[in-house]
Fold this protein.
Amino acid sequence: MIISCIEKLTRLPCFRATLLFFCTILIVPAFGADKPLRIEIQARSSNETYRIIPCGSSGLLIFFRSLEVVDEFHVSWYFSFYDTNMQQVWVKSIPLLNNQDFRFHQEGVDTLAMLFVSSGKSKGKENNFEILRIVLSKGTFILNKHKLQENAEVVAFGIARGRAWLGINIPGQAGKILNIRLTQGTERMFQLGLGALISVKWMKPDSASNEVTAIVNRQISKKGFEYYLVRYDTAGLIKSEILIGGPASDRELNHFQLVSPQPGSYLLVGSYGQLTTSSSRKNRIPDESTGFFAISIRNGAQKSINFYNYLELQNASALLEDRDIMNIKRKALKKNKNLSEFSLDFPVLLHNLQRNKEQYVLTAELYSPQYRTENFTDFDYYGRPYTNSYSVFDGYRFANAIVAGFNLDAKLLWDNTLEIRNLVSMELSPKVVVFPSGNDQVLCYVSDGKIGSKIITENNLVEKLDFSPIELLYPEDKLLSEMKGTLKPWYANYFLSYGYQEIKNIALESNNKRLVFYFAKLRFEK
């Protein structure tokens, strides 16, 4: 059964705190006035599988995995497409394999491509994946189904010139790239290179040719890695290969973002971790980062590489208390070492590089796993009570975001930060939206039913972090809790806010407490 929507037109009062976020104005002739729109879907729990993909000025897609069993191997997924006025255009369902979940998507001119891959590691389950293409204007579905070898993990996905490309890593084996001719359904898989200890770190197909660009790493010793920027053709032949990074050392490049403003010219920016530092910990989390690196590539060769320790950023004080940074500096001075030899070691989530005039802006969200301790009473052999404790994973706590601007020569031009408050998520997905507004950058996110926003101009603060509530459906509604709150850019200066909310309204005769999945269209104004 398809979702049932509760649509209600309500007037939203304007509020301003330099930023103005409000539900978009819709012309509704039946009411003779401009009123905003919010859509709510009744939910049983926040574990339901509603997801939204903004599709630019075409509209938005909401989809979910239902409980409808089609046969032994398939369940129904429902897809609903809305236009930019949030009017439903079509609703359709399609059976997909029951051991799969949604992983990646890519928007085309008029088609949305979605990748569904096998989830879990249960023995006996086939490692299948399906590529679903949706012609948004018509609601036409095109499905390709394929298989992967056991334990293969898809880490990158892209579509170009009628081909789908998948970057695949396999524990103990060399990574591979698979390309599929979508119309014919034929596929070809090739190995990244020689040796078993080689893997895909980043990948993107070229829309101008039948080639794919990838960043691969090869482990050459227990702690040493080599990194290459490689272009492959559809048969797996290497068209170009560039060694990137410095000599094998105590730095490990662990996250990557790449742009190519013109053929043969690249800016590669990412994060790196210190393998051995004076602040190293035995229980160091893999892929923790110490700072940013930036690499400039021209005419087929690495021109320059720069490393920027988080401790050396102009706004490093926002990441730690001033006294903590001073203690680290005193320790470095006492041991006659450089500050760059120390580290903060944060797990990070990198955004895609965004071009802003002649700069490229990188956003990195810092997070940490959060646990809680639960106790229970048990009894020993003699019946004597004793207390047992165990840790329960609560999710990932997002604490800060770093926003930094780089030029094509791999120079850090400026940096700034955004404090993230009360945001814990079970999913490692971007929470912060960064977008340009004239000479400013606007940083914002959703937390506890409010939009936190801050305005900067490079290193300078224009407007400090402020919070504005998102209006609910009825004037008497009171927000009790919010789960999985998300803010995403949509098109122009419009945004989508969505998530699960528990709401109480004592003015209603029935259903005065409800759990909903909501989505609303927002507009930004200064």
